[in-house]
Automatic annotation (TrEMBL):
It comes from Azygia robusta. One of its GO terms (cellular component) is membrane. It is found in: Membrane. Residues 1-219 form the Heme-copper oxidase subunit III family profile domain. GO terms for biological process: aerobic electron transport chain. This is Cytochrome c oxidase subunit 3.
């Protein structure tokens, strides 16, 4: 018996609820992804590696479309309205976040290449620390930000972009943390597969941040 139809119906329900009560819908969506991760990644779908790989790339494709749509809107607002101020200065916290994520991308690559050779956990911890610093810096930026959702459609879209990317960073950190549980509990082939997926996802998050920095803060 497959759990895919049940999971899909749950997601559809979350979307319908979020149309009217977005806080409840968000909570249900987080719960749905948590159940998927615990059941699918840690236990249920361990034998369907090819299906998981295809699903991962479909997920990345959907994320590209979501971010691309938001980037299109923010560029439209910037072109039609002169004198808009960014959420934060481009040479302040956002620039620090660039170095943090680029550094974490390097350590994530080192972790991937050293997997099974020893010393990979050191690079994994470095990646987690750099990612946690990014999360802390973003929270501090939100605290200092002079604008809010109610200041116009432009700032609403900017907060959507930055907040969506922030949630992806948190999800990536959770993926790295779960890898500690996978060590010794699954075969080396599965470890390599899951490590590859998490690292590819992390690189995707890094590349998206460069676009966020350019379009939301720099331009």
């Amino acid at each position: 018996m497959s759990l895919v139809p049940m999971f899909q119906s749950w997601l559809v329900g979350c979307i319908l609820v979020s149309l009217f009560m977005w806080r409840v819908g968000l909570a249900l969506l987080v719960l749905a992804f948590t159940v998927w991760f615990l059941v699918g990644v840690l236990g249920y779908a361990g034998s369907n590696i090819q299906h998981q790989g295809a699903g991962f790339w479909l997920f990345i494709l959907s994320e590209v479309m979501v971010f691309g749509t938001l980037f299109f809107y923010v560029r439209g607002f910037e072109a039609s309205q002169i004198g808009l101020s960014p959420l934060s200065s481009f040479h302040g916290i956002p620039l620090v976040c660039c170095f943090l994520l680029l550094g974490s991308s390097i350590t994530a690559t080192a972790f991937h290449h050293n997997l099974g050779l020893g010393g990979s956990n050191f690079y994994l911890v470095c990646t987690l620390l750099l990612g946690a610093c990014f999360v802390g810096a973003q929270l501090y930026e939100f605290h200092l930000c002079e604008f809010s959702w109610s200041d116009g459609a432009f700032y609403s879209v900017c907060f959507c972009i930055v907040g969506l990317h922030f949630s992806h960073v948190v999800l990536g950190l959770l993926g790295f943390l779960v890898f500690f549980k996978l060590q010794g509990g699954v075969s080396s082939y599965l470890q390599l597969f899951y490590a590859s997926v998490v690292v590819w996802y992390w690189h995707f998050v890094d590349y998206v941040w460069l676009l966020v920095y350019t379009l939301v803060y720099l331009c």
